[in-house]
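Lecture notes, structural biology module. Today: joint structure prediction for complexes of two components.
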Amino acid sequence: MRIAIAEGGTLPTDADIVLLPGRAAFLPQTSTVVCSDIHLGKAATFRHAGMPIPEGSAQRDLQRLTAIIQTYNARRLLIAGDLFHARSGCTEHVLDEFSVFCEQVRQSHNTEVVLVLGNHERSLGKKFRPHEIGIKRCEKEIIEPPFRFIHDHQSHFDAQPDSFTIAGHVHPTVTIKGTSGDRLTCRCFVTTGTTLLLPAFGSFTGGYTIRPSNLTRIWLAQIDGVLPIANALVRS
Amino acid sequence: MPSAPKATLPQRRLPSGKQRSSRNKDASTPKRVVELTTLGATCEQWFTNRDQTPFEFQRATWQAMIAGRNGLLHAPTGTGKTLAAWFGAVCRSSALSTHHKKTGIRIIWITPLRALATDTARALEEPLADLTEMLGSHWQVGTRTGDTSAADRRRLRQNWPEALITTPESLSILLSLEDSQEIFSDLDTVIVDEWHELLGTKRGVQTELALSRLRAIRPGVITWGLSATLANLDEAVATLVGPTRRDHAQLIQANAPRRLEFSTIIPDPIERFPWAGHMGLRLLPQVVEAIDSAKTTLAFTNTRSQAERWYDAIREARPDWKDTLALHHGSVDRELRNTAEAGLRDGSLKCVVATSSLDLGVDFGPVEQVLQIGSPKGIARILQRAGRSGHTPGAVGRLICIPTHALELIECAAARLAATAGSVEPRRPLTNALDCLSQHIVTVACSGGFREHDLYKEVKGTVAFANLDDQSWQWALDFAARGGHALSAYPDYCRIKERFGRWYIASPALARRHRMNIGTITSNATVEVKWCRGGRLGTVEESFISRLNTGDRFLFAGRPLTLFRFDGLTAWVKRSRGSHGLQVPRWNGGRMPLSTLLSAAVLEQVRLAGESQQDSSAPPLPPETAAIAPLITTQSTWSRLPTHDTLLIERARSRDGHHLFIFPFEGRLVHEGLAALLAWRIANKTPSTLTLAANDWGFELSGAKQLKLDARDFRQLFKPGQLLKDLFACLNGTEMAKRQFREIARVAGLIQGGTRSAKQTQASAGLIFDVLSEYDTENLLLEQARREVLENQFEFQRLSEALDAIAKKEIVVIDTPRLSPLAFPIWAEQIQSRLTTQNWRQRITQMAEELEHAARI
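The predicted structure, tokenised, for the full assembly:
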């Protein structure tokens, strides 16, 4: 699998997967933007539970996503699970905001929005009617050789040994330490020979510190850029 | 016997179904008035029966309490404060007693540590049997703390004991109950034990608010505090009873100081490099010898990790003490702690290695001596700990300091001399902690609501909020209700609601959740450690255990363990053989800074040491200071000795970069502030990333690039001008405000502590800090986080005084060939903070270069 990074809005030629600034990936063959773990309505979930967190970040996240679709003129947006955070956070306001987003990208770029259900969507219940907000949903996984899109790469539904899995769920982050004491924790893409783990797209989401092995490759995923780094820089 | 006396208010039905008179029973004629003198005589008799006479301060205390005054009893540890206050409270209640029928809670006893509750209950129950006659019935003493089981809590609610021992947190929970008005309607006296421990903390503010609430529910209640080793007694009294009652409150001081003896074990010979903590276990033989010479020893360390290490080392050194050695710290399971405490009480243990978990509490008679391992850090602390020994009649309290690195010898000398001279640090009460206020507002809303004006007046009656302005009050109320300005657009969010002029909690579910999160103590995520075969050992921090792999060995609860499995909630362990190469958990507890008073005493010792080198006719040095003469010589040869009128700055290079060491001797907190300020001013000129470290003697800035600065540049950098503006700017550049915010967010209810059950509402305080900084910049809690860093962490007042002082000092910049003896311990400290003016790409490039460079060496 040829993986490359996009610099300054230009796409590299002959890559199967392009890692984009802003924590999403692009598949040139199918003109698809892939991202995961947006966790819309997380702040609302907190408010429902009596914790006063303002909204704001969700709207900004959707704006970023629109900008990415615009830049790469994507025909399809594929969300690998955990689009919504929880049932109590799926308020009218949050759902409206998302349907406006869907409508916008459909009209301006004829972009189709597809969602692979994640563990958080499973708890939404009847309140969650994807077709009403204009998205196509898929229960378990999408197999589209050579790719397989799934939320949690560790669940094996129809195990396809030779497909390349693109998954979310983990919210991977790494911590980098220098010898003179500097230290930085960033979200990252993680690739192995057969998988790509996407960083969490949503701003109001936490992270899980991963420990890279010899087989993994780490790509720092910042809002304004992607940078491959040597595993030796990562300290667990 | 007639039932309850006639009440003028309509009678309310209690949960247990009992009828009881309502609040105004003071007004009705007492059925049984015991002469005050008789009451005093009963207490006297109790002592006489035991062939003892009460101290004058004990008499004074119970007389003042019977007379219905508020006050503070200040007496050294182990002189009988508990008994004095208990007799006073019991006498007062019996004087006020209007009917023989069992009523609600009469006395509340607040203890800062829930671990103390059981011991206190035992101590209070003991004399009760003899007082039954005076009381007219047998009194019950109950405890209600975080440790109390749900069943016991239910039992308590059905039948409140006359005296209830509780913690500030549990008291707040009781105040949040719907029937709190009734629970406390018979209250006569509140006693706050170990008030000095609470004063100056957020728990102290919480206690103040609870006390003001109790006074509102029951206007006749009196408040008494018990305290040891405190300098600002007047402030302590005012904070306890409220500023308006200060003039009528009584301060009783014991003039029977206990005899205490201090000494230090001096290692021989002194190593040249005082690695922080490295001398560590070198004094083990002397420590073992000291333990051997006494019947029972209490060995205090400053951290839990140190306690684990020393316990293990002593056990290795003396296998024959296997059964008479115990370990006691806050993370060890309660069962194990109880065993250790019981062993101390009955004298069956030779030695217990403990942390501040045993600083307070009921005295252990058999303890003959106390060891202080590591610097005592404060004078009040050394006095408190010394007071834990020598409780047999006629015995002397003995404390032996065990330095763990060479420079601590000077700290030991300074602390020992100051303690002997009798100077103690003050503890200043906190003010305007809006997070506590916001929590309190919701607490009161849970308990049947409040009128805005009433609560405002109540809150203003505390020292903590005496200067609260109307605007901040409105903000706190609005925050409790709607989450503040930024959330006004979200009707889905509402914690308290106004109905007919009163504020109530919005739903019973929110009240339940609020009760679960009452408190001001923040703790890191912890993981329970259990034997594979069953049985608990205690808790360690998740961050430690998640770094381990299955099969890794570590030391915990004094036992070598192997990690068998970690499932996210529990670490399952097996016993491991041999104790070499074990990892020791770290707990990110607060690290104690050297007190201001002690830092000044330390600089004085350094000066004396330098003087005696120059002048052989100088007065003899204390043995500790004399012992590190070689080190002082090295320091003055390689560099200079700091003095009162020079500011010493050393520049050095090491494998990990370029360093600046600056020695203002202003205490760790001020040093952290100065380090952040200086780093900000340097990085503002040239984009760079600097790491900051500080100890009580000085601070360090280091970076990958050389900082080309001379004395004149430093003079500029230390200019006080625009101090506040620069400090605010550097707070944003470092993680300090974010760190402080964690505690504030927890108290204000932005994040929920403890339980892992509510997965969908878990977010780190750091994440919330970022969200608020971006979308709710006017949030006063962010403001409070910055203010708390400025005031409490950096001690802004002292910081600005320190800059003024530096302006008068001569600045001496010296390049040292190697790290000097004074610089070394700072270098060995953990890095406390980072400050950067570079973007992430530059930082990563830099780190990659460093790594390559390190690989080449």
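Point to remember: The radius of gyration of chain A is 17 Å.
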